Amino acid sequence: MNLFHLLALCGMLSPIIYTLMWILGGILQPEYSHIRDDVSTLVAVDAPNKKLFDKFIISSSILLFVFYTGLHWGINNGAGSITGPILFVISGLLGVLVALFFPLDAGGELLTIRGKLHLVLIAISGILATAGMVALWFRLESEVEWSGFATFSLITAIVSLILVVATSAAVNTNYVGLVERLMVSSYQIYYFVLALMVFLTN
Predict the structure, then answer these.
(1) Residues of the domain holding 80
(2) Could you give the CA distance from residue 17 to residue 39 in angstroms, rounded to a whole number?
(3) String of DSSP letters for 67-119
(4) Segment 35-70, tens digit of pLDDT
(5) 3-class DSSP state of 14
(6) N or C: which end of the chain has fewer CB within 10 A?
(7) Residues sharing a CB contact under 8 Å with residue 83, sequence separation 6 or more, in sequence order
(8) Nearest Cα to 190, choosing from 146, 144, 154, 165?
(9) pTM above 0.90, yes or no
(10) Is-contact 1 189, C-beta < 8 A?
C-alpha cells in the first residue's frame, strides 16, 4: 500500500461517513424526516444530537479534503491540467470550514450571518466541485485508462446540476429532504468512484 492508496481510502471513507450520518439521524431522532428535513438540520445549533453528528460531518469533510490534496498526482502521475484538482481542493476546504464554523441557526433557519454563510459556502463548494468534474472530463477524455471515468464525470456533473435546480425548487415544500438527498448522493457517489479509481490506478 502506498501514499495514494491511503489518500484514496480517505476519499472512499468520506461519503460513507457522511451517508451514515443522515441515516443515523432518522434512527436517533424519530421526529426527523428524510423526506421533509434537510441534512444540515442534523447539525444546526440546537439539534438534539449535534455533538455526535458534528463528529461525523467534520470527519467526512477533513477526509475528503485530505484526499483532494493528492488528487492531481494520483491521476496519471500528475500528467495533465491541475485545474480540476485545484477546484476540488478549494471545494473541500470550504466543506471543512462549513463543518467546523458555520452550522445552521436554531431550527435549521438562516437568521444570522453564520447561518447564511452555511448556505452560501455550501453552494460555492458545490459549484466548484461540479466545475471540477467538468475539468476532469476535459483532462481525462483522451486517456485510455480513465476515459470511462471521464464520461462518468461529465454525466455526474450534468445530473448534479439538474438536482441542484430541483433542490432549490423544493426548498419550501415537504419534499426538500428527499430531493436534497438525491442531489447529495450524486456528489457522494462521484467522490467514492473518483477515490476508487485513484486507488486502482496507483
Answers:
(1) 3-201
(2) 13
(3) HHHTHHHHSGGG-S-SHHHHHHHHHHHHHHHHHHH-PPPGGG---SHHHHHHH
(4) 999 999 999 998 889 999 999 999 999 999 999 999
(5) helix
(6) N
(7) 135, 139
(8) 154
(9) yes
(10) no
Contact 130, 149 (CB under 8 A): no
**Which residues, including other chains, have CB under 8 Å from residue 174's CB and lie 6 or more apart?**
35, 36
Query: Which residue type sits at 96?
Result: V
Element spanning 47, H or E: none
Q: Quick one: cell of 72?
A: 492531481
* Count of structural domains, the chain: 1
CA dihedral in degrees (176, 100, 57, 130; nearest 10)?
60
Give the DSSP H/E element, type plus range, for residue 42: none
Can you tell me whether residue 154 is helix, strand or coil?
Answer: helix
CA dihedral of residues 150, 71, 160, 183 (deg, nearest 10)? 140
Whether the Cβ atoms of residue 74 and residue 46 lie closer than 8 Å to each other: no
Q: Cα(51)–Cα(72) distance, rounded to whole angstroms?
A: 34
Cell of 29: 431522532
